[in-house]
Each structure stands twice: as C-alpha cells, then as structure tokens.
Amino acid sequence: MSSELRLKKLRGSGGFVMAQVSDDQQRKGNLGGPDLFLAPIGRLDQEKISKYYCNTCEKDYEGSPKIEYESPNEEVAQNLILLERGQYMCTTCGSTIAEYREFQKQNQQADVGLAKPISPSIDQPTVSESTIQPLTRSETQTFSSPSDSQNSFSSIVGMSVYDSDAKKVGVAKQVGVNSSHQVVLIVTKNNGSDETIEWGKIKKIGEIILLGDGTQSGADSGLRCAGCSFENKIGSKFCESCGSKL
Questions:
Q1: Do 49 and 80 meet the contact criterion of CB atoms below 8 Å apart?
Q2: What pLDDT digit, counting tens, does each position of 105-137 carry?
C-alpha cells in the first residue's frame, strides 16, 4: 500500500485543518461518509499542517494551530489506558479547533472492561439505572452493531463517544435495554452525569463511537426529558425513565 502523503481536510468541532496525512491516518479519520475527522487521528506533526479554519474567527489561517497536550497514562476502564489527550487551538482567539484522545489496551488480546466510575456533580441529574436492564451474554452475541461493526458490547464499554461535529460527549458506560425494550447506550458525560442514547442514533463504531447528527425521530418532538435526557414515546406526559413531568 502507498505510503505517499496526501493533502486532506480534517474536521474538528471548532473548524478544520488542511494537512498531509498517510493512508493509515486517513483510515483512522474516516468514520463513515465523505468527511475525515481529526479527533481519531490524534496529534499530527505541525509541519504537516498547511492551514486551518477557525469557526469562531470565521477565518482561514496559514500554518498550524497551537497544539496543547498532556500524557496522563490514566486507567479509564478495565484494560484501557488513556495515553494522551490534547486539543488544537486557534493561535488568534484561543478557541478549540478539535480535541483528541489516544488510548491503549494493557492486554491486546483481552476486551475492554467496565469504565472507571466518575463521581457525578451534585447539581447534575443521573440516569436511573433501575430502568435499564443489562444485556445478557447471549444477547450480546446475537445483537448486531451499527455499520456491521465487529465490536462486542463488552469492548464498547470505555470507548470515547463523539458527536457528529467530532466533539467528545463522554465515555460509554453500559449497554442495556430500557423500559420500552429498546437497546440503549449509557454514556458518562464529561460533567460526570449519565445520559441514555438510543442504539439507532449511533452512526459508527470503530476506535471511537460516533453519534449521528441528532435529527432522528424524537429529537424535534419535545419529548426528551430535561432531567435525564431519555427519549420518550410521542404522547408521553411523564418520563418513562425517571418519572419527571414532560
């Protein structure tokens, strides 16, 4: 396979960069669809970036944005280490162009286990886990993942979850079935609270979990619970997850 570098547009949550990338980096950045994303590629050599665009400034800049990163080497889940986290920042206004996380399994042959618990904020509501039933071993073997992914549910736990703008939403905590017998993904958000996401809203599972654009049914119906973010059926007057009035 060719190792030639090609100039590509790589999207981030706050803009994009134009950079010379390899075939392997293109594969990492391809999460489905025509766009390439910067987040799953990680940290690029700054000399490979020819220019970038900042959404805040609404302007193109020559050269590379500022790249800030740290290496926490933190265990975020069983058999999963967060090696590095960083962000691309506009050199003019300081806004974030893109964020990234790089992970490594301690044991490459083993699956990723449960996510490391995060203490939720006192002011943040949490999902009522009594309404979520975990999938059995047989269900995880027979239920297919989005985009024909070969990942088992046990390996999904602990993965970083990103929205369609390549912004990190949180970390996958649990896969289960809600009171409406729908398969859902529980995500521990960046602020420590939990959110349930319908399985059909997951666009792609690879090195990260990519969500769709949020325009699926239910997003515009006004039936998303303000307390726990559960998507309720049309006509519901109370949240099926936490019981709050809609």
A1: no
A2: 888 887 766 555 544 433 333 444 444 555 444
pTM over 0.70: no
**Coil, strand, or helix at residue 221?**
coil
Residue with tokens 């515009």: 220
CA 108 to chain centre: 22
Rounded to an integer, what distance in angstroms lies between the CA atom of residue 6 and that of residue 24?
11
Report the DSSP beta bridge partners of residue 104: 81
- Domain spanning 111-230: which superfamily? PRC-barrel domain (2.30.30.240)
Largest CA-CA distance found in the chain, in angstroms, rounded:
58
191, 141 contact by CB (below 8 A): no
Are 10 and 88 contacting, i.e. CB atoms less than 8 angstroms apart?
A: no
Domain spans, the chain: 6-104, 111-230
Which DSSP category does 48 fall into? G
26 membership: H or E segment, kind and range: helix 23-29
Determine the Cα–Cα distance for residues 96 and 47; give it in Å rounded to an integer.
Answer: 19
What's the Cα-to-Cα distance from 124 to each of 110, 189, 192, 194, rounded to whole Å?
Answer: 34, 10, 8, 9
Q: How far is CA 112 from the centre of its chain?
A: 16
> Amino acid letter at 18?
M
